[in-house]
Design a protein that fits this description.
By secondary structure, the chain is of the alpha/beta class. The chain folds into two domains: 2-246, Rossmann fold (3-Layer(aba) Sandwich), CATH 3.40.50.970; 253-286. It is built from ten helices and seven strands. Helix 2 packs across helix 9 (225-248) and helix 3 runs parallel beside helix 4 (93-105). The longest helix has 24 residues, at 225-248. The protein binds thiamine diphosphate. Thiamine diphosphate is lined by residues 8, 56-58, 85-89, 114, 116, 118-120, 181, 185.
């Protein structure tokens, strides 16, 4: 599946085999980063894994996903596109344009809306007065389903069926996964300023999807505390090793800042490159020494 995600889907990449080293290289923007150090950290992308570079500008990935899906259909590929976004994303014009285009062009695309109740400090009651996102899909003529987003097996089964339909019937599908953002929006957010601690605790202690899934695999004898501690310690080691390696690695060459957009570099870009090189020559102490000029 061609994937166009927002920032909350590194799990898709992990599942497809993107390595810890590849994650770390992107975060450090080193020479091995596929984005050549041009993106902010956590904006992963990988051709090899059919994963478009993450979009942090809300909902811009949705029309792109429809275009990618339509191209797959034109090329008669046995494949579809999938795109992810939050409840906040449904207020963007791009969401509406994408849904309408996908319905009219019968593009094989799966829209996965993570309705986690909050867009930073904006609750869904200030986001829309419709019954969530699922009804919007239906209004545009897109088959739509609502799933318990904290039930891993329900999600697996819904996405599996959606993929079969998208490819087999050549049409878009919308999945609204109902969930809750237990954590703060980012490390610079303190969500206790705008929502009750009791509410967060209720979701954390009674609805946590990882705890639910763990209980299920434990009850089947496939998991226990020992396996978990071993896994946690091995993954921790892998992450630390990957971060150390990524930090040591050379940065991309300066010339990479000015390539890949134009076939022939325009004069203003050439001037900027010249000016940057002159500045580095004048103030070498202010620039990292491991950046090839
Ligand atoms: C077009 C645009 N407007 C504003 C922002 C700033 N911003 C970043 S995340 C966010 C909230 C996103 O909420 P939601 O779409 O519900 O996704 P969630 O983070 O809850 O998964 C906002 C407003 C942005 N990245 N892009």
């Amino acid at each position: 599946m061609t994937t166009l995600s927002s920032l909350r889907e590194p799990g898709v990449l992990l599942w497809r085999g993107f390595s810890m080293q590849e994650f770390a290289n992107q975060c450090f923007g080193n020479k091995a980063d596929y984005g050549k150090g041009r993106q902010m950290p956590i904006h992963y992308g990988s051709n090899k894994h059919n994963y478009f570079t993450v979009s942090s500008t809300i909902a811009t990935q949705l029309p792109h996903a429809v275009g990618a899906a339509y191209a797959l259909k034109m090329d008669r590929k046995d494949a579809c596109a999938v795109t992810y976004f939050g409840d906040g994303g449904t207020s963007e014009g791009d969401f509406h344009a994408a849904l309408n285009f996908s319905a009219v062009t019968e593009a094989p695309v799966i829209f996965i809306c993570r309705n986690n109740g909050w867009a930073i400090s904006t609750p869904i009651s200030d986001q829309f007065r419709s019954d969530g996102a699922v009804v919007k899909g239906r209004a545009y003529g897109v088959r739509s389903i609502r799933v318990d987003g904290n039930d891993a097996l329900a999600i697996y089964s819904a996405v599996h069926a959606a993929r079969e339909m998208a490819i087999g019937e050549g049409r878009p599908i919308l999945i609204e996964a109902l969930t809750y953002r237990v954590g703060h929006h980012t490390t610079s957010d303190d969500s206790t300023k705008y929502r009750p601690v009791d509410e967060i605790e209720w979701w954390r202690t009674t609805q946590d999807p990882v705890t639910r899934f763990r209980k299920w695999i434990e009850s089947n004898g496939w998991w226990n505390g020992d396996i978990e501690s071993e896994l946690r310690s091995s993954v921790r080691k892998q992450i630390l090793h990957a971060l150390q390696e990524a930090e040591k690695a050379e940065k991309p060459p300066i010339s990479d800042l000015f390539t890949d957009v134009y076939d022939v570099s325009p004069s203003n870009l050439r001037e900027q490159e010249h000016s940057l090189r002159e500045t580095i020559k004048k103030h070498p102490q202010d620039y990292p020494s491991n950046v090839p000029i």
